[in-house]
Amino acid sequence: MSADGFVASVEADVCRAVLEALRGDSEVQAVLGAPARLFDDETQGPAYPYAVLERHEYLDAGAAMSCAQEHLIRIATYSRHDGHYEAKSILGALRAGVERLSLSLPGQNLVLAHVTYCDAMRTRDRRLFRGVFQFRLVIEEA
C-alpha cells in the first residue's frame, strides 16, 4: 500500500479489470467477436473490426478525508465494413459495456463510470473507419 491507501499498481489493475470486463461483455462480443478483439497491443495484425486501448490517464481525485482516483481511458476502434453503421455499433456496444461496468479491485470501489466522448470518422484510405471512445472512472478506497 502507498501512503494514500491505494495499491501502487492500481493503474495497471484498473486497465486489466476494464479490458477483462469489456471483453467479457456479451454486447461487446456481438460486435467484436468472442473472444472480443479488444487489445492492449497484444497483437500486431488483428482481424477487423477491433479495438485498442489507446490512452489511460490517472488523476488524484482524493479529498481531505478520502482517497480517490480518476481514470480517463480512451479506446480506439477500427472497422472496414458497413461504414459508419458498423463503427457506431461498436461504439454503442462499448458505451453500454461501460454503463454496466463492474470492476473487481481489492480494497477499492468503483464510484462512477461515465462516457465523456464518442465519435467515428472515415480515415484517409476511405475504407477504414476509426472510432474514438473515452470514458472516466472514479475509484475510491473501500
Name the descriptors:
single chain; 142 residues; alpha+beta; 5-stranded mixed β-sheet; 3 helices; 5 strands; elongated
Q: Could you give the count of β-strands?
A: 5
Q: How many helices does DSSP assign?
A: 3
Mean pLDDT: 88
Report on the biggest sheet.
5 strands, mixed
Low-pLDDT stretches are none
Oligomeric state of the chains present here = single chain
- Helical fraction equals 25-40%
Itemize the secondary structure elements and their pairings:
Elements: H1 10-23, H2 26-32, E1 38-39, E2 50-60, E3 68-79, H3 83-99, E4 108-122, E5 129-141
Helix pairs in contact: 2-3
Describe this structure in words.
With about 140 residues, the chain is an alpha+beta fold. It contains three helices and five strands. It has helices at about 10-25, 25-30, 85-100; strands spanning about 40, 50-60, 70-80, 110-120, 130-140. The chain has a five-stranded mixed beta sheet with strand order 1-2-3-5-4, covered by helices on one side. Strand 2 (about 50-60) and strand 3 form a beta hairpin. Helix 2 (about 25-30) runs antiparallel to helix 3 (about 85-100). The protein is elongated and about 50 Å long. The two termini are about 15 Å apart. The model has no long low-confidence stretch (mean pLDDT about 90).
